[in-house]
Structures are given as structure tokens and as C-alpha cells.
Amino acid sequence: MAAVGLKSTEDSPPPNAEVSNARRPWRHDLSEAFRDPRELCRFLGLSDDVATVAVDSTSGFPFLVPRSFAERMQRGDPRDPLLLQVLPQAGEVGFQEGYSADPLDESRSLKAPGLVQKYAGRALLLVTGGCAVNCRYCFRRAFPYAESGATRSGVDAALSAIAEDPSLTEIILSGGDPLLADDATLARIISRLDRIPHVVRLRIHTRLPVVLPSRVDAGLLDVLAATRLSRVIVIHANHPAELDATVAEAVGRLARLPAIMLNQSVLLAGVNDSVAVLRGLSERLVAIGVMPYYLHLLDRVQGAACFDVGENLAVHLHRQLTAVLPGYSVPKLVREIPGEPSKTWVHAR
User: Fold this and answer.
1) Prediction pTM value
2) Rounded CA gap, 51 and 127, in Å?
3) Stretch (H or E) spanning 68
4) Which of 3, 277, 307, 343 could pair with 64 as two cysteines, CB 3.0-4.6 Å apart?
5) Among 343, 337, 219, 234, which Cα is nearest to 285's?
6) Cis link prior to 240 (omega < 30° from 0)?
């Protein structure tokens, strides 16, 4: 999800005794994010060699890491699993066979400007092209957001298309990260969806509660509480070290809306490709009230080959995970194949 910066501003959220992160508005937190790999490397006490490789490997995909996320990384460890997700690596540079700029062929799934429909009954509304963190494995790192309608006019066109299609009962706010939009923008979009009778469910795919938990403030909670739509919020965490107390607090506030809380992960080499880490992630998610939902095989976007975990190893890890966890805490192992009517479950052959 490529970050393109902030497009609007809003006043600080009103005080709320329950929302501890409102002490510092989320936009202030985002303004202090690392935007140069050298700055993050200095913060973590990493060598100049590590920083040089990162700078040389940015490869046109901007670098962006919130300090709240960086503070969970281990100082002095260039192989820290959180750091690996965001620090450019030498493998990003150059053409990689079998990888593409649009690995899910989403350009062919545009139902209208700003509206991607791949599966029956539901569609993605592209709210923004921006994120609070630029994960190096992101399958939309080269996605043409502006041309695809991730603009105000595009969102308006998408909302009109949704209103005209009674088969759409669930709308997924996506991007980029939809929670990077300000509260006023989100309120306008959700109120429009509220007025469409055949839409009954709102799903939000977001990484912000994990990487920038201060975003879950009183203003956002008010916007989400106001809708008649049932709410499903899908966060994105890949490693248990991402889920500190501030994330648990943010998740708890969302759950009390109420909202169904789910997590989706990507299986990433060097990050979570072990039973111990995957088990720890699922157990931590359940402990904070989030159900493990999907464990994705890597979408093969150009620049991300270093993260790929082979299907045989993925199946082996998943089988072992199933043997040590209760069924409700085992995420489905899936791959997304363009043109298929749903995610494809990956099983042993």
C-alpha cells in the first residue's frame, strides 16, 4: 500500500478518558514517522552498511515507518522481524522472474472508478492511496491509485455504482489504508453507504491500529459507532512483537463498538516462517480479542521475492500449527489467484 502523504487535516479529537492515545493526536504521531532509512538505522543503532543498502534499494517505493512501530524493534538487530518488513533490501532492485507490478490483476477488476470487485456480493472501495507504513512486501506497492479512482471524485463514482447494484451487500473500505482518511471523509462515505438499503455490512481493512494505534481515537470511534451497518474490522499483523499494550488497547476500543475483529497475515521469509512465531502470533491475537483469519502466501509483486516462502514449507508449517492450537485460533492458509471466485485454500497434496 503505497504512501502518498496526507491530503487533509482535522482538529484534534475531543478528550475521552477511555482513549489514552488521544493525548497525542495521531497526525502528530504520523508527522514524526521515519521517512529516510538512515534515520531509522541510526535510531536502532545499526551500521552504516545496513543503511546504505536500504537507501540504494528503495527502488521508487517510498520509505515510511511510524516511530510507534519502530519502538517495538530490537536495537542493534538488522534481522529484527519487524524491521525486515519495512527496511528496503538489496533484493528489491532489478527484475524478478514470475513477479509483476499487479500480481492480482486488480486493474481488470475495477467495476467503476474507485471500486474493485473480485468476488460476488462484496466490493472494495478505494478510500485513499496512502498508508501509515510502507511494507516492502505490499502487493499494491506499484498500484496506480489516482488512475484507479482513489480520489474524492472516484469515491463518489464508486458510491453511485454501489447504489445501483443490489447484489452488493458488503462494502470493504480499503486503499492504501482507509483509516488514513480524516474523520470527516470517513463519516461522509459511511453515511452514504448507510442510505443504500441493500448494503448491510461494512468491513474495514486496516494496519493503522497496529502501526499507529493513536488513530483509534474518540473521533474515529464516534464515526464508526454512528452507522446502522454491522462492522467487521480486519487488522494486519505478522508477528507477535507487533501487538504491544497500545495495540491491545486500540483493538479493545474497536471491539466495543461493537465490531467483529479479525487479523490477516502474510507468510514472510525471515519474519514469521516458523511454527513458534505463528503460534505466538495466534495466541497473542486471541488474547487481545482478535480472531486469526487468513495466513496468505505472498502475492508475487515485483520487489518482494526475498519474502517468498515455498508452498510446500507453508503447508508443512500450517499442518504443525493445526496440531498445537485449537481450531478457532488457526488461520486459513490461502493464496489469491486472479479470476477465481474466492481465496484458494492451500492444502497438502
Assistant:
1) 0.91
2) 33
3) helix 67-70
4) 3
5) 234
6) no
Give the pairing of strands 332-335 and 344-345. antiparallel
Three-state secondary structure string covering 326-346? CHHHCCEEEECCCCCCCCEEC
Please give the grid coordinates belonging to residue 4. 502518498
Q: Which amino acid, one-letter code, is at 255?
A: A
DSSP per-residue letters across 132-149: SS--TT-TTTT--HHHHT
Cell of 52: 546504505
- Return the closest-CA partner of residue 66 out of 177, 268, 214: 214
Q: How far apart are the C-alpha atoms of 118 and 339, rounded to whole Å?
A: 7
In angstroms, rounded to a whole number, what is the distance separating the alpha carbons of residues 329 and 105? 31
| Secondary structure E strands in 145-259 | 170-174, 201-205, 230-236
- Quick one: which of 120, 29, 96, 189 has its CA closest to 342? 120
260: enclosing H helix or E strand: strand 260-266
pLDDT tens per residue, range 255-297: 999 999 999 999 999 999 999 999 999 999 999 999 999 999 9
Listed residue (224, 162, 167, 231) closest to 193, CA to CA: 162
SS3 308: coil
Calculate the CA 315 to chain-centre distance.
23
Sheet holding 332-335, edge to edge: 110-112, 115-119, 122-126, 170-174, 201-205, 230-236, 260-266, 291-296, 332-335, 344-345
Q: What is the pLDDT of residues 112-122, one digit of tens each?
A: 999 999 999 99
User: Which residue's entry shows cell 502501526?
Assistant: 211
Give pLDDT tens digits for 179-217: 999 999 999 999 999 999 999 999 999 999 999 999 999
Grid cell locating 242:
507487533
Q: Are 64 and 30 in contact (CB under 8 A)?
A: no
Neighbouring residues of 312: CB distance < 8 A, sequence distance ≥ 6: none
Cβ contacts of 39 within 8 Å, gap of 6 or more:
none
Q: In 3-state terms, what secondary structure has residue 14? A: coil
CATH no. for 106-345: 3.20.20.70
